[in-house]
Amino acid sequence: MKIKNWLNSNKNLLLLTVALSLFAFYLGLHSPFYLDDFTSIMESPWIRGGESIDPLLNAYGERALGYLTFWFNFHYMGTSPESFRLINILIHLATATLLFAFLYSIQNDNSNNYRKLVAYSGALIFLLHPLNTQAVTYIVQRLASMTGFWVLLSCYCFYLARAKKMVWLYLFAVLAFALGFFTKQNAIITPLLWYAIDRFAINRARPWRYDIVGLAGLCTVALVVAWLYWPTIDALTRETDDVTRFDYFLVQGPILWQYIGNFFFPANLRLEYGIYSNPYPLWLSVLAWTAHVIVVISAFLLRKRIWLVTLGVAWYYIAHLVESSVIPITDFAFEHRTYLPNIGLVIALMPLVRYLLKLPKQRGLYALIAVVLLLTATTAYRNYQWANPYVFYQNELSYNPDNQRVKNELARYALDNGKYELGLELFEEMLANGNVKLTESLLINLMVAYGNVEEWDKAKQYEQIALRNINRMHPSYRARIYLNQGIRLKETGQCEKAYDSFEQVQRLFNGEFSSLLFRTQCDLRTGNIERARKMVKELYRKRPSDPRVEEIVQQLSSSRP
């Protein structure tokens, strides 16, 4: 039986997808939390909080929908990384399924006998591509994959509404756009993708004079608005003041080529690129952007013969507009930023896939199978790295040996797993470097590290450094600093002072569990039994299965007259 005939069965395609997905992502499913997973999710008072989602919605603004899913995970699916990552994988599968439907629909040439197989090949390449791993396995980057899902759904609904005259779907296109925007702001480019779909996939024969007039009008309006409200627009469209828009733009030229290279040759993948300023000479940036312009012009010239390439290239660069153009972001490069743009590269590859499938003796099909298997194996290996923190961090340090953030997190991982000596050794190695920056995260980790080995004087030393700048810190960092200060005071027999620290945490995040727990432990130590009895009811209501709460209950029971 020919392989092509076997692949014509929907049941076989489903079985193949499940098998390859399990092989590619199973190890990643069991990876631990990493980096921003802690600060943005597990240690976030707005997510740990419980009774009301209003503080979370107010805190995260335009990203509230994405963080609401983390809140749901935390309170209804458990706090294990597997439960969080399972949702990420399901979102990725849903996006790949939606991509299959989109690719199948836009191939409106009824003479194409390979329509389903072409669409399935594209969806499978996207599903199993290792460059997408960061948006799937790195839990906090669920926002990237969720945004990709909503934007693609919006574009699919727009296409059906426009091309198939299913007018009611315009409403769903707008709704999906809104959901994408309130997941992550880079969904703002969705209307531009609608335009690209309309212009290159639906109304390819329309005279360009109407587009030129319309685009000129929009540009004029945009320039007038920018001139009138520039201070406000400038504040809203930058994450950092440490780099100019022009410098950020120059850097993104070579970085975009690195992204493209990683798509076609997915080697040397990493989380941290460690680019925080312009490392490239001017000539290289100019050359890189010139090459991008040549690609765009070439794709435009192919719009009549190979319009899928034109649409794919347009999608790719439009999808990068927010994070890879003139909006300065602290970290210049991250692989999760390619998740939505990678859909464009898959679209652009569809003519090549169709050509390969038409080759005689299934030679092209064998080539596609080899590519898919190679991508699957590479993704599985990348997930193996994610599943083994020491392997993961060593891989990161092989590219950036002086990366302070990676060393900080490796030391933190050692501490969390009871390897206090290794953790402190890594911290002291960092501190021996005179150029080390005492970030909020590093200061908190040092307080925790020295607290774990009961070196309270050193813990206090870094606590005092943190307290000097605490008013400039994010509330979540301030709460963690006060919390660790309270723990130090409690453990050194200064419960009366510890109360003040725990109260500071409560002022920042009313009802925060850990500070209430430690304050109740202080009540037991100081003999304030009645207040401890009142507080334990609140603790038990919040976390009835927490062993520390059970211990307090037992202590209170034994203290009854």
Give the N-terminus to C-terminus distance in angstroms: 83 Å
Instruction: Tell me the structural class.
Output: mainly alpha
The H/E string reads HHHHHHHHHHHHHHHHHHHHHHHHHHHHH
Number of helices: 29
| Number of separate strands | 0
- The average pLDDT is 86
Brief account:
The protein is mostly helical and 561 residues long.
Can you give a write-up of this model?
- The mean pLDDT is 86.
- The chain has 2 domains: 3-204 and 238-390, no CATH class; 438-558, Serine Threonine Protein Phosphatase 5, Tetratricopeptide repeat.
- It is built from 29 helices and no strands.
- It has 561 residues and is mostly helical.
- The radius of gyration is 27 Å and the shape is globular.
- It is 73% helix and 0% strand.
Annotate the secondary structure layout:
Layout: H1 3-7, H2 10-29, H3 36-42, H4 45-48, H5 54-60, H6 64-76, H7 81-106, H8 115-128, H9 133-137, H10 142-163, H11 169-181, H12 190-202, H13 208-228, H14 230-236, H15 245-264, H16 282-301, H17 307-319, H18 339-357, H19 363-387, H20 389-399, H21 404-416, H22 420-432, H23 440-452, H24 456-468, H25 475-491, H26 495-508, H27 513-526, H28 529-542, H29 547-558
Helix pairs in contact: 2-8, 2-19, 5-6, 7-8, 7-10, 8-18, 8-19, 10-11, 10-12, 12-17, 15-16, 16-17, 17-18, 18-19, 19-20, 20-21, 21-22, 21-23, 22-23, 23-24, 23-25, 24-25, 25-26, 25-27, 26-27, 27-28, 27-29, 28-29
Features:
561 residues; globular; mainly alpha
